[in-house]
Structure formats: structure tokens, C-alpha cells
Amino acid sequence: MPRHVLALLAVAAAVFLGGCATPNQDLVVLLPDKQGKVGTVIVEGKKGTTVLNTAYASARTLPDGSVVGSTLSPNEVKDVFGGALAAQPPRPMSFTLYFESGSDEFTEKSKLEVKQLLSEMARRKAPDITVIGHTDLVGPATSNDALSLRRAERVKSILVGMGISAERILTAGRGKREPLVPTADGVADPRNRRVEISVR
Amino acid sequence: MLSTSLKKDIRLALAYSCSAACFFSVAAAAGPADDIAQFKVANGSVYIERSGQRIPAQVGTHLQTADTVVTGTDGSAGITFIDNSLLSVGPNSVLAIEQYKFNSTTHEGSFDSTLRKGTLSVVSGKIAKQSPDAMKVRTPSSILGIRGTEFLVRTSN
Fold first, then answer.
1. CA-CA distances (angstroms) from residue A109 to A65, A113, A117, A131, A183?
2. Which candidate, B154, B86, B114, places its Cα nearest to that of A82?
3. Secondary element (H or E) of residue A6
């Protein structure tokens, strides 16, 4: 075979092996969260599946559809994903408010919490919030759903009165699904009668 | 033949149902039901493809289901969804939001997106926390099942 043909073949092989001509190779990396906890991601290629459940565990899909597991270093992660990581939105922050029993007034501690909520909103770009009402475990689910939503709506109107645009506020009623303090069903616990505000 | 008063009732009913329909269609066009996410970060060239149109995206721009987010060579963007899922893309990326449903009472929902190109960072939110199969991220060659919480995806062709 003439020498220049061999050279061309070598170049073609290098391009192929280098991945330029191969379709859709994926890289998936699992990260620890801010508390160091790690979740699970299942990567399903056309021929094979890999489960990622340790920090910096990674999966690559190969051109034949198979999936190969490995572990990346934090520096490798930064090299490949620096742009996407730098553009992460700020983490949502949660504030919890309580009312004086039988009244529309926030407790003293909650008034302070409202101040912190407002300054957190001022710190963020284009902030929006969800006001989430919760109840204790007394009564049936349906009436607690309605009650928790009413609480959320009440807090929304208070916040609108403080100058937050209504368009920035969503409301939700979680009823008794997410007690702060786990109790048996039917237990009246004031710590569970609360309104949580998630600032994004 | 209809009595005059009955005709009047019918006219009133028609007028009422029309105005109700008009009210609801306006509400559906601009209502909070469409509001699934907002851009919190937008650097360089970032736009949304929506019904064949290109809309430039900036901080505060709202995202809808079926939107595709596109970044240029100098672009990157961060988007926060109403279930607190956080998605961000690096340069030269194309991310299609195919389905987003979230019930804020039960936290049930479904969230399907496809990274056609580029890099994606995900911090999963309440949808994935509530039900392990509710959130999927696809690429042209793989499907990712999300049990939580933080991960990165690159797809290159």
C-alpha cells in the first residue's frame, strides 16, 4: 500500500478513536449535596445500565450503546462542567412563621423571621416565593388541605400589604402531609400549625 | 314560539357563558398555571425557542412547558422551577423542557427534559423527592432516572 494512503488511514483512525466522528457520547456525574449526602441516578444506555450512588461516581455511554462506570476527580468535574456549575441559581431558602394562637398576628419570633425573609428577597435577583400552609394532625385530610391553603392565602395578603408584588407569590396548602414534629394522627400540636415560605 | 321572558333568559345565559369563557381563556393565557420556572442567571447569549420563535432570555424571564433553552458559545443560564428543582446549562447547550407538572399540595408531578447538546447541572426538587420515577433527563443516547439530588450531564456528538 502506498505510504500516503497509510498516512491517511492513520489520520482517519485517530479521528475515529478520538471521538470526533462518534455519535452522542454522554458523561454523567453524581455530586454530593451541600451536606455531603449523595443521591442516586440510574443511567440507562441503549445497551446497558449503570447505577450511580457514590460521590463523583460517573457513567460514560460508548458509541456501541454500552455504559461504563468510573469515578471523576473534583478537578475533572470543574474542567468539564465549570460553566454549568457557575450558572447554578441560588439555593431556595425556607422561612417558617407562626401565629399567636387564635389571632392574625405573627408571634414575636415570626416578625423577626419576616424581616429576614424580606432582606433575603432583596438580596436575590428576580425572587419569587411559595407560601405553604401546614396543619396539625387533627381532622380529615380534605379539611386540613383547605385550612392550610387559607393560612397560606392569609400570609400572602399580609406580604402583599408589605409591598411584595402578588405576581411573585404562589400559595400551596400541604394539609397534614408534612408535620414539622411527627405526631400520631389526631394530635393537636401548635408547632405543626405553621406557614412556610420558600424563597427562590 | 318562545315567550319574550324566556328569550331574554337565553340571551342573558349566552352573554354570561361567553363572558365566562372569555375570562377563563384570558386567565389561561396569562395565569400562574403557565408559570413553571424563572431564569435566575443568564450570561452571554441565552434564548428560548417557543412555538418556532426565538425569545431572548434574561434574569426574570418565565419559562413554559415545551420551551427549549439555548445558549451560545459565551452563554450559560440558571433556571429555578416552582418545585425548587434547579437546572443550569453551560455554553453551547440545548435543553428542551418536554413535560412539567407539579401538584403543590401532594408534590406529585412529572418532569421530563432532554439535553440535546452541551452541559447540564441538576439539583432535583420536590417532584423527584416525592416519587422516584417522576423526573427523567434524557440525552439522544441515554435516559437518566433521578432518585436525587445533584448531578451533571454532558452530551457530545
1. 57, 6, 13, 18, 24
2. B154
3. helix A3-18
Distance from CA of B49 to the nearest CA of A (A): 19
CB-nearest to B90 from A52, A83, A173 is A83
Q: Cell numbers for B145, please give them.
A: 432516572
Mode of pairing for the β-strands spanning A129-134 and A169-173: parallel
Give chain B positions within 8 Å (CB) of A132: 104
Kindly state the cell numbers that stand for A165: 408584588
The residues, any chain, with a CB within 8 Å of residue B44's CB and separated by 6 or more, are B71, B72, B73, B74, B75, B76, B91
Q: Does the reported pTM lie above 0.90? A: no
When CB atoms are compared, the residue of B88, B154, B157 closest to A80 is B154
**Run of H or E residues at A48:** strand A48-52
Nearest to A77 by CA among A56, A98, A97: A56
How many residues are listed for chain B in this entry? 157
User: What residue type is B115 in one-letter code?
Assistant: L
Predicted-assembly ipTM surpassing the 0.90 threshold: no
| Mutant choice from A30, A93, A128 vs B, greatest count of B C-beta within 10 A | A128
Closest CA to A86 of B75, B92, B46, B144: B75
The series of mean pLDDT values per 10 residues for chain B, 157 residues long, is 47 44 38 78 98 97 97 98 98 98 97 98 97 95 94 92
User: Strand A194-199 vs strand B37-43: parallel, antiparallel, or unpaired?
Assistant: unpaired
- Rounded Cα distance between A53 and B54, Å, is 38
Residue A8, all three cell numbers: 491517511
